[in-house]
Amino acid sequence: MSRIRLAGIVPIEDGFAFMHRVGVKNHPIGDYYTFPGGGMEEGETFEEGVKREIKEEFGIEVEVLDLLYEKHDNTGRSKDEYFYLCKYISGKFGTGDGPEFNNDPEYAHRGKYIPEIIKTEDIKKIKLLPEDIKDKFIKDIENKRF
Length: 146
Fold this sequence. Notes:
Order of helices and strands: EEEEHEEEEH
Helix content: 10-25%
Radius of gyration: 15 Å
Shape: globular
Number of strands: 8
C-alpha cells in the first residue's frame, strides 16, 4: 500500500507559508524548504488531514479550497502526494505544536523545523522541494492563479 502525504499551499500576509528544514542529517542537498504537510492518518479524509497538518505545523486554522497538484512516486517507496490550496482562517502563525516541535526522539535526526512566510517574489530564490511541484507552483504564481 502506498503512503499518502498531504500538503497545504497557504497564502498568508504577502507570501506563502513554508517549513524551512535546517540541519537535516544525511540529506543530499542540505537545508531546504517544503510545503507544509505530512502523512494521512487512518480514518481521516484528505481535507481533514491537510487541516490537521497545517494546525500542527503552523498553529493556524485553514479552509481547504482546491487540489492543485498530485505527485505519484512508484520507485519502490510508493508515496503519493497531494497539494491543496488553503485559505488562512485564524490563529497565530508559528505556534504549531506537532511532534516535530516537542523533542520527540523520532524526529531527532530530522533537524530543525522552522515555519516561515516567504514573500511571493522570493519563492524562485529558495530551495523548495519537491522541485517539479515548485516549477508548477511558480508558473501558477506568474499566471496569477493565486
